[in-house]
Every structure is written in C-alpha cells, then in structure tokens.
Amino acid sequence: MSRRVDVAIIGAGSAGVSALRTVRQFTDNYLLIDGGALGTSCARVGCMPSKSLIETARLFQNRHRQQSRGITGTEHLSVHTKDVLEQVRSDRDFFTRTTANLTDELSKNHFLQGYARFDAPNQLDVDGKKFECGAVIIATGTQAYVPTQWQSLGHRLLVSDWLFEQTDLPHKLGVVGLGAIGLEVGQALAHLGHDVVGVDLADALGGAQDPAIIKVAHDTIGRSLPMHTGHHVTLSGSGDGVSMQFGDNRCGVDNVIVAVGRTPNVANLNLQALGVPLNTAGVPDSDPQTCQIGDLPVFIAGDVSVHQPLQHEAIDEGAIAGFNSVCADIRAYRRRVPLKITFTDPQIAQFGCGYGSLDLTTTVVGQALMADNGRARISGMNAGLIRLYANRAGLLLGGELLCDHAEHMAHLLAWQITHSATVASILRQPFYHPVVEEAIRSALRTMAKKLYKNHSVVEWQEPILL
Amino acid sequence: MSRRVDVAIIGAGSAGVSALRTVRQFTDNYLLIDGGALGTSCARVGCMPSKSLIETARLFQNRHRQQSRGITGTEHLSVHTKDVLEQVRSDRDFFTRTTANLTDELSKNHFLQGYARFDAPNQLDVDGKKFECGAVIIATGTQAYVPTQWQSLGHRLLVSDWLFEQTDLPHKLGVVGLGAIGLEVGQALAHLGHDVVGVDLADALGGAQDPAIIKVAHDTIGRSLPMHTGHHVTLSGSGDGVSMQFGDNRCGVDNVIVAVGRTPNVANLNLQALGVPLNTAGVPDSDPQTCQIGDLPVFIAGDVSVHQPLQHEAIDEGAIAGFNSVCADIRAYRRRVPLKITFTDPQIAQFGCGYGSLDLTTTVVGQALMADNGRARISGMNAGLIRLYANRAGLLLGGELLCDHAEHMAHLLAWQITHSATVASILRQPFYHPVVEEAIRSALRTMAKKLYKNHSVVEWQEPILL
C-alpha cells in the first residue's frame, strides 16, 4: 500500500533544502528523498572549495605585489598543491557539515535515503516503497559532464566533482572548457605553479559575452595561462599522460581537467512517466516564474532545471516550487536581477541584461579602463575594463565587468537595476574617494555625454526650489 | 584701479577646482587665486598617500594569512619604512601632477598665485592687486591642527600634512587622536613593525558612533596597537623623545603623530571684512545646500566650510558654490547620502543617518557577525560586525560597518537609501554566493523578524498574478 504525502522533494541540495524550508511552513506531511552524498553541490564540489583554492592561489600570487612595494624576501615563498588541497578539503568539510546537519534533524517520516522513480506524475517509487504525492519537486542537481569518448582516460581525466578529492596534482595540466569553473580552477592552479594550458571551442571566457571584455580577459588572464579558443579538442591517452590536439597544436599534459558543462541528475527518475517531452538537456521544460512543468503537479528547481545553475537562483527556485506545491493557486514570482560572477584574477561579472540580448541599435554603451582608477593603481590591481549598457532614456540595462572587486561592483549595479535607476540617477549617488567604484562613475560619464544635453551638470541634484 | 571679475575662487584644491569647472561653463571672466602648494589636500597629504601607506602595510600583513594557508617562507619577508615612504611619495607625486596640471592650463587672466584678502564682501586684495568681484568662493581648505602647547616639540611632533615628507620614522611612535587619520596611519605603521601606542580623549574610533561597533573596533584594531581612550594626554619633550602622559599612564616614544583635527585656512583672508559672525571654527556659518554665507555674494566650499571634510563632498560644494555664484537665483541642492570610510583593517564605514542622530525608541536595529560569513571565513578576514538601522516601516535609515570590504558594502547600502529602499526590498535583491554581502542579508533577516509578520517569506518577490 502506498503512503500519501502532500509534497515529495527529490534531492537534498540547495534547491531541495530551500523547498523543504518553504513547504514545512504549510504542511507537516512532506517527504525529502535523497540518494546521493549529503551536502549541497555548492559546499561539496562547487562554490566553497573553489573559493578556498582561489584564496590560497591569490595569497601566493600576492608575492609579486609585495615585491613591487618594497617587501623583500618574497623569493623564499613557496606552496605545495598537496597542502593546498588538504586545506580545501578541511574548508569543504566545515561547510558541508553546516548544510548536511539540516537533514539530520528530520525524522524518519520526513526523510528517506534512496532513489526516487516516477510511476506517474503523482506517484513515486523509492526503492520499492510507493508514495502518492499531492505534488513532487525535482531538485536533483547536476553532475559534471564528460563526453563518452573521453571516459577511457580514467584517472587522468579530472572534473570539478572529484578534483578536490585528489591528494596531489601533477605538474602539467590541460583545462578543456574555459567557462567559470575551468577558468577559475585553471588560473588558480597556474598561480600555484602548475604548467596549465586552456582550450575552449567558444571564444568567450568565464561566460563573458561583450567582445571588448572578452578581448581584455584574454590579455589579462592570458598572462597566467596560455588559452586557445575557437578550437575543437581531441584527447587521447599517451603513456601515463594525455595528448591534447586542437587546431594545428598538439601538447602533452599529465592530467586534463574537463569543465565542459554539467548534466542534470535525472537518469534514475523515469521522467518518461510524466508524459511530457524532454528538452535537449533531458529534462522537461518548466516555467522559471512558477517552476511548474506544464500543468502537472510536478515542479523542478535548482541546477537540474537548467535555467540558471547558480546557488542563489537554486534557492529561489526551491522556494518558488515550495510555495506552488502547497498553495491552491499556481503563482508566478518575479525573478531577481541576473547576476553572475567568475572568481578569476581579475574577476569577471555580468549583471542585468546580457550583451547578447541587447538591441545594439538602441543601446548606449559606456566604458572605463581600470588603469585610470587611482585606487586600483595604488593596489597594483588596475588591469581591466568596465562596460555598462543603458537604453536611450538612460535606464541602466546591464553590464559586464572585468576587474578586481567586480563581485562588489556587480552587486552595486544589479541592485540599481532593481530600482530602475538611470545613468543620471546613479551619477547622483555618493562615490567616496579613493575607491574602485569611481571607475563606474567614469563609465557613466561617457554615457551621460551621449545621453544628455546637460551632461556636465547632470551629476548634481536637481535644485530644490527655495 | 581694480579689475572687475564675475567670480573669484580662492584656493585651487578639490573644491576650488570643482568650482572652477562649473563657473567656466557660464563665464570666461573668472579668477582662481592660490597661494600655497599646488595640488589638492587629497592628493598631497590626504587620501592618496595614506592609501599608499596602507596598501603596503596590508600586503606585508598578508604574510600571516599566507602562512595560515600553507604558504611557507613568510618568516623571510621584511620591509623598511624608509622604502615605504619613498614609494608613498612616488605615488603622491603621480597624483599631484594629475591635479596640478589643471592650473597649468589656465592663462594669466584666469590664475593668480598669491594670497587673497577681503577688503569687503565683493572686494579682494591679492598682494596689492585689487579685484571687484560679482561673487567670491572661499575654498582654501584646512591644515592639521596642533595645540600651541605642543608646538615646542618641534620635529618630534608629526602631523599628516608633513608625515609623508619624512625620509624615515623612528621605532616608537605615539598617536594622539584616533579618528580616521590617526587610526589609519597608526595601524599601518604598527603593521610595518613600529611600536605604536594610540590615545584619544573620545572613546569612538575612526568616527564610529554605534557602541556595538566601537566595542568590536577596540577588540579587532586593538590587536595591532594598544589604544587608550577616554584620556586627556599631556606631551612633553624628554631627551630626544616625547613623554606621553594619559590617565595614570606615562610612556616614552621617539615621535608623536598628532591627528586631533584640522583647522580652516582663513588666517590671511581678513574674514572680518565680511561683517558676519565667525563660528568656533573661525569661519562664517554657511548653508550646506547653497554654500552661501548669509545673503552675501560670498560662498564657502570644501573642507574649509567644516560641513563634511571629505573629498567627494568638497567637489559637490565646489559645484554648488559655482552654480550659485553665476546664476541669477540662489538655489538649494540636495546633498548626497552621507558616506564615510576609514581604511583600517577591518575597515570602518558609516552611511546614511548616524547612530547618534537616530531616535532609538523608534529604530529597528539589525546586526550580523562577519565570523558567520562563509566567504569571509575562507579569506581569514572574518573579524567584524555589521549594524543596520531602519524605521518601524522598514525604511533603511543608515548603518555602521566594521569589516573587510566595508568600503564596498557601504556604497551598496548608501545607494539603496537614495531609493528609499526597505528591509524587505533589499532582501529581494540578488545576493550571489559566496560573497561577503551575504552578511548584509543576515543582518536584514534579524530586522525582518522584528518588522514583518510574514518575515519568512518576505524575501521572495510578491507573486505576479497570472
């Protein structure tokens, strides 16, 4: 006989736990099902361990700035990847404990370890146990994608999901895929002393879309590691190592890190039982504002939805799916202003409308070189470029940033888009001195010149009549 | 015979140059008068050289974080204040050249080197040359204040105006005055290896007003240098050094850095000729929204106005005075949201309404410890506290931050106050993961619990009806 639950949540990662927190405000008759390693992708294999690696690489890289400012003895500094990876795992264990504890709190009625499989849109089978569900939330996450023809490389091929499990890494490393993960990890390992070469079919780095940003990204990040873009790559075993072939180049590396995307964890779910078509990612389409699949009582949330594989978006989707799984009416929720950060040196950030989605015939573009920013000059971190986009009325639409502290400036500007801020209104905000944010003002001024007749006075508040 | 000018600007610093840029959009018959060293206070003796000193101190201090993350050899790092000061002057010269160049461009008709003195509100005497002025803008800046009883200490007493001219500094240093300048310089020199002791009559550090912030500031910055607050200090020469006496303590130092405030540069101006009373700072009161002195054709802009001695405020006052000096009607301009940053480690920042100006009976206070922020934890920079203030309707009023990256977070939040953002509306902004900005969300959540019945769902956008 099957048990009846109001809501079943499949997956105890960021999205699933967010759905859980929402659902249990409305009903006690819920079930969380998880078959894999506990802890979120973010804490286990994603954001947190990569930040730990990047932080150490950045501190080691700091020796060049130390030396340039008269600090002597930097030639004695050294670091071993083995020690760095141990620290990464120690950091990771701290953060996975924090998230995994949430599932420990749940009773047997509320949490089931096992693999869920759809018998019908509202019927689940978990290792033989049957459940009749008011609603189901799919939040199973993703895993690193490895093309089948490369799987024979065995232990010589690494992906982010198990990279941080390595006790050490060999000297020569190839990175295939220069999106956020490949670029972050590849550059950090290059800074730690590895000989790293990067290859990508696409020209874009770290998800950048703006050609001006991509060019400067190649110039700046290219100082850390050679990057070959626009090439298909062929990998083949060669002795203990891997031979990489791309364009007319061939190079041998010890290991290759493959970061060519992530694939939804849906193999065990029997999604065919939902009776709806699956998209090219192998999941049904869902509405980003409701997280619902068609008009089924089935919702999909987090990375597995393939909307935006980012932790803060996954948490939102979990909450939206959670609300809609228990409320009488399906409601559409407004999503947050898009924001994406790649933690390279310099960082790459996008916010608001992406360059690829702009109507360039009606867009006013502003830019500022970080080389001209006094504070960035003093810190020796003044490589980079800021590009901002507005419409003809001056409304800020979005931007791409390539600079130190891009993570902070992208928040600053994304939070202005929420308020429908214009080039003029942002110029009337306080800019302290000396700060890197002054580069934003420089970029806005180039836009003000194109937008406003009174551009030279637009920075001062409209006078209040006395 | 006197020459007639539409506007005379006294002082070629940040405020004066800003006034100049404004005025010359309206008239060519203007005169800039400056008697001192060219270049702004900011570039010569203020923001820029101090940031240069702080940057080197921070990079040297980084060796502790390098060591804690497995980087070996940090015991070989060393730095000499002599070299650091040389670099500071090299940075400074770069920035003063940039600002001083503006006055080089001006013709003899537009720029006069000399000391201006009022004969009457609209009459100036510059070293014997007489000018009849449509309006006068006083933008003469300030200089470090040294109480007369300490002037006999001679070269053993240092102030920020000539600190960076020293070729080297002795080992034991006292700092009198723990506002922004004293605290920044004192901590940086302590990090460079000096034995520094700080004393202040007031308990506040770096201008902090919130008692919770002040307490944590003592705990964190106190690790760099011992600080004795709440004491009058007596200084007296003692051999080659200085004896400092405060409370029941007496200690000997080689030199003492005095940072007890700045005093307006008005000694030569003969302000009595304006026929208006002078305030305790020795300048006439002026309206911060018009920069006008009473109903005289005389305006006062920048640090000398003693409104807010900050570079970005000085530039605004220069512009406001500039507009009002040439336009038929005097207009009031809205000032920017207050923002102040002290570049210590951790940084101290205030934005919006200060703690001292809050009505605590109607204020909702939220806070978050940086120790709980994952990203700050990874970077080893997780000492600090965030305090935010809202009214009972949830409107963000202001806040004080004590943390790494406070400069960025203070911009982020000040720019929300401009839009009348509420605790709920800010919670609906995108927070990336993992970033230090997530600590702001933690603080806002503590406020949401006090403010909203639906606090657990307030973070998600109001649903859009389908």
Automatic annotation (TrEMBL), chains A, B:
Domain FAD/NAD(P)-binding: 6-318
GO MF terms held by the record: dihydrolipoyl dehydrogenase (NADH) activity; flavin adenine dinucleotide binding; NAD(P)H dehydrogenase (quinone) activity
Annotated Pfam families: Pyr_redox_2 (PF07992), Pyr_redox_dim (PF02852)
Record keywords: FAD, Flavoprotein, Oxidoreductase
Gene3D superfamilies registered for this protein in UniProt: 3.30.390.30, FAD/NAD(P)-binding domain
UniProt cofactor(s): FAD
EC number: 1.8.1.4
EC main group: oxidoreductase
Entry-linked InterPro entries: FAD/NAD-bd_sf, FAD/NAD-binding_dom, FAD/NAD-linked_Rdtase_dimer_sf, Pyr_nucl-diS_OxRdtase_dimer
SUPFAM superfamilies per record: FAD/NAD(P)-binding domain, FAD/NAD-linked reductases, dimerisation (C-terminal) domain
Domain Pyridine nucleotide-disulphide oxidoreductase dimerisation: 341-443
Protein name: Dihydrolipoyl dehydrogenase
Organism: BD1-7 clade bacterium
